[in-house]
Amino acid sequence: MNRITTLFNNKKKNILSVFFTAGASKVNDTLEILEAAQNKGIDLVEVGIPFSDPMADGPTIQKSSTEALKNGMSLKTLFSQLEKLRKGNVLENGQSSGRNLNIPVILMGYLNPILQYGIEEFCIKAHECGVDGVIIPDLPFNEYMTTYKALGKKYDLKFIMLITPETSEERIKLIDDNTEGFIYMVSTASTTGAKKEFNKKTNEYFERVNAMNLKNPRLIGFGISNKKTLDNAWANSSGAIIGSKFVSCLHNNSNISSAIDELFEDLKH
Q1: Torsion of CA 57, 185, 268, 49, to 10 degrees
Q2: What is the dihedral sign for C-alpha 70, 71, 76, 82?
Q3: Distance between CA 75 and CA 77 in Å, rounded?
Q4: Average pLDDT, the chain
Q5: Which of 7, 81, 161, 164 is the most buried (most CB within 10 A)?
């Protein structure tokens, strides 16, 4: 069973997901970050594919993408790292690295690099590496329906769709009927970035979607950086996605484990 499905079957509330840009700190940190996240009790990780022109990302994640590209990160390089994700991480000398990574992993990136790599080739490689899902913010829904939905089923990849406060109920129901895994519930129409609290309009949006009784669970992302926003997200969905805050913690700490400790500490206040 897909690890995303297993996660939501086993844990209904208070799921914690984090996002980081692959290669932003050091080009070879990807597996170490995933291992540390699993060891610290994070439930799900989104690995960002760096792109030169992201449309939904705020300054923090944009900067991390720029740094990752300067470090030489590419989709090809990322896949070469993720090849060791589920295979006992056997080293070149035949010994095991000791990692046992079972945490669900989602690749999040824009359509252009994926098209350049090749749509089906991308899905094949993601499946071979043990990736569980994909988020492509600029993927048109009609293209998903005509091409990507079938590829997702063929290669056991959950294509996660985003909704925003501006998404109509008709559109939300269409997404709910035609996707699996979870729905990424964007808290605001603005770009990513930390917020102190959610306003009345955002909470009304949460309540409106809650009342729709969707079949898919939802995770809330964008703006979660402290206890108040985390608790609000947990109260109104199955869990929270933390991006900019986690990227900042990784930037501020040379030690990955310390970065996650800093994140958890900040989420207490």
Answers
A1: -40
A2: negative
A3: 5
A4: 91
A5: 161
Which of 69, 59, 21, 65 shows the shortest CA–CA distance to 191? Answer: 59
Q: In the CATH scheme, what is the code of domain 14-264?
A: 3.20.20.70
Q: Is 43 a catalytic residue?
A: no
Handedness of CA 66, 69, 75, 78 (dihedral sign): negative
Q: Catalytic residue at 57?
A: yes
> Does 40 have pLDDT greater than 70?
yes
Strand order in the sheet with 218-221: 158-160, 133-135, 105-108, 44-48, 15-21, 239-242, 218-221, 183-186, 162-163
- Among 29, 35, 46, 262, the active-site one is 46
pLDDT in tens, 224-261: 989 999 999 999 999 999 999 999 999 999 899 999 99
Q: What one-letter code names the amino acid at 27?
A: V
Active-site pick, 29, 43, 57, 132: 57
Q: Where are the domains of the chain?
A: 14-264
| Residue 191 confidence (pLDDT) above 80 | no
Q: How many CB atoms lie under 10 A from the CB of residue 262? A: 18
> Do strands 162-163 and 183-186 pair parallel, antiparallel, or not at all (unpaired)?
parallel
Task: Name the β-bridge partners of 160.
Answer: 135
What pLDDT does residue 55 have? 64
Spatial distance between the Cα atoms of 111 and 117, rounded to a whole number of angstroms: 10
